[in-house]
Design brief:
Blueprint: E1 7-13, H1 20-34, E2 38-44, H2 51-55, E3 62-65, H3 72-81, E4 87-90, H4 102-109, E5 115-119, H5 127-143, E6 156-159, H6 176-182, E7 187-191, H7 206-225, H8 229-258, H9 267-299
Parallel strand pairs: 1-2, 1-4, 2-3, 5-7
Antiparallel strand pairs: 4-6, 5-6
Helix pairs in contact: 5-7, 8-9
Length: 312
């Protein structure tokens, strides 16, 4: 039988040639200090420098080499699906997250949490990066309401069971705790250290911010209406159709009783437009409702998650 692995440390890498060896050393040192069995998984995400070359020869290490750049979320997904540890630790490879803080995540997890997120309460980033990050955090609190301070911190700990039915796409690695919280998992948070980047350059820019916002809206929809899309689209459709009917009735009254000319008025067209849009939204809601039900049926599970069944 294979030896039980307690920790899987997953690190996506993109052009981190000057960081990989030191990152590996710090992870090994932290795991040995905790006295836990572990595996280290590096994902080379389309690096064009010597990252792959510098990874070779490091031990212990499982190295996943992508054919090209697919992004950090894809790196985390590949690492998770190729891991064996009972607890999965994710972190960045730029040395800004400190592997020495892993024990803080594990200690917090012992309080009964399924996920523990790191909180960079004293960030060592540029003003512009912190500015955009704080703006994204405000939007996240409004739309997603995941109750953590720092979804952008990659240093997180998860129980293996969390990823039983999870596939990651887009820029969704930031919102894994929110996705899991929607399924009933308990999410905790702990303050961790954060260091300035010494080698390499950050890949965070406005394009990633836009992608993150789109994913945030997607998660908002799943959180609020994944199990009842008809309530969103059908309800909106009924409101618009009702408004359109009111406008048409108003125009009819003006024409019949007050002999008002409607040839130069935009309101009749507006009323018809709202009625048609409302009908389309209602039909779309019905179709989305059918698709959601077929999705759950094809996946072999329902829109709820059972933690355990206790018999006595």
């Amino acid at each position: 039988m294979d030896e039980k692995i307690e920790l899987s440390i997953i690190v996506p890498l993109n052009n981190e040639e000057d960081n990989v060896k030191e990152m590996h050393r710090r992870i090994v040192e932290a795991c040995q200090k905790m006295g836990k069995s572990y595996e280290i998984i590096f994902i080379n995400d389309g690096s064009t420098d010597k990252t792959l070359e510098n990874c070779k020869g490091l031990s212990p290490l499982k190295l996943i080499n992508f054919r090209k750049w697919f992004g950090q979320t894809a790196g985390f997904d590949a690492g998770i699906k190729n891991s064996k540890g009972e607890i999965i630790i994710t972190t960045d490879g730029d040395l800004q997250n400190d592997p020495a803080d892993i024990h803080l995540l594990l200690e917090e997890m012992e309080k009964g949490y399924d996920i523990v997120a790191g909180w960079r309460h004293k960030r060592k980033d540029s003003f512009s990066k912190k500015f955009f990050s704080r703006g994204a955090n405000l939007l996240r609190k409004v739309l997603i309401q995941d109750k953590i301070h720092d979804s952008g911190c990659s240093l997180k700990a998860y129980k293996r069971e969390c990823f039983k039915d999870i596939d990651l796409f887009g820029e969704m690695h930031r919102f894994i705790p929110a996705i899991l919280e929607m399924q009933g998992y308990r999410v905790g948070e702990v303050k961790v250290s954060h260091h300035p980047r010494i080698h390499g350059v950050t890949f965070y820019n406005w394009k990633r911010g836009i992608k993150g916002f789109v994913d945030m809206v997607s998660i908002w929809f799943w959180r609020k209406y994944a199990n009842r899309p008809l309530h969103l689209f059908g309800g909106s459709g009924m409101v618009l159709s009702f408004a359109g009917f009111l406008i048409l009735i108003w125009m009819a009254v003006m024409k019949i009783f007050f002999h008002t000319s409607l040839s130069d008025k935009i309101w009749p067209l507006m009323g018809i437009f709202l009625v048609l849009i409302g009908i389309q939204l209602f039909i779309f809601g019905l179709l989305a409702d059918i698709l959601i039900k077929n999705y759950y049926k094809s996946q072999g599970h329902m829109n709820y998650s059972i933690k355990e069944i206790i018999e006595s």
